[in-house]
Amino acid sequence: MAPDTALISNGVAEVKISIDASGNDDTTVVNEATITASSIGLNLAVYDHVMYCLPPGTSGGWIAYASMPGRKSVYNDNWCSYVSVQMHEIGHNLGLHHSSHGSIEYGDQSGVMGFGYGQHEGPSMCFNAAKTWQLGWFPNKYNTYNPVEIGSWKGKLIGPTDLLEAEGSEYTVVLKIERKSEINLFLMYNRQEDFNSGTTEGGNKVLVNSQSYNGMSDLEATLGPGDEIVFPDFEGSGKDLIIQVRQTFDGTPDYANVAISLGQMPSSGTPTKAPIPVPTNSPITSSPTRTLTLPPSNGFPTTLPTSAPVNTPTTLSPSNNPT
Length: 323
What we know:
The protein is α/β, with parallel strands linked by helices. Helices cover 11% and strands 23% of the residues.
């Protein structure tokens, strides 16, 4: 069905509802907006994603939330204008959980499924290794490796920003390291350029993420040239899994040379063990606060989550947890 061009301009439709948003809860306001949109001939069911930007004054200190997976996302006033918050919520629509770092649920700052940023035009960043694999956008540049069955792996990791320059099978965007458990490891070169120029953690380093199937990811390490991380007694094999970044190269494409071994790593310099510390200060604003809901079978929820929100932060340091 064709878009409602008479009602929508540049992807935005303004709907005037019959109730005052001030003092009402967001559920009531969103449901009223949905009913009003339908009454004026705006068919929301034909769109892949519907973002509700609510006016100020709704009750509670909520920020934003989304259905996961689903089509609907909802934003409180100015939070609708922050691009990282939009990407975070659309990520939930696409089925992505949060990107954590240690005990901090939103602490992986290499991609947008961690904390959000109070910026209208940035930062320019994408998704971490585990989320990039889950999205399935680069199937011809994904590789799977089972250390127990294969032993060692060597290869060239590129970032998504260099995909068009990486001809040939020797280049990998994401390497998945399989485990017996559901929690696998994912590696990607977090090249800090172009649409990923604003990544705030692990820029121009190899990201090592762990994630269960479609679950929350955890940032295990960011590795530069000469760095390595060791997973002792990998899968009960009695051998350590060693992931080492040998070198990084700027060229066409940019890439990182990575070597992985189950057991002793062949000599090539003196690498250092390099897990990363969990950040103690989060230099960014928090994003949404609500618990996510699954949509009904038509993919468009008619009611919204009702979990209690927390107060919106007044400084650039987040004081609450996003969704």
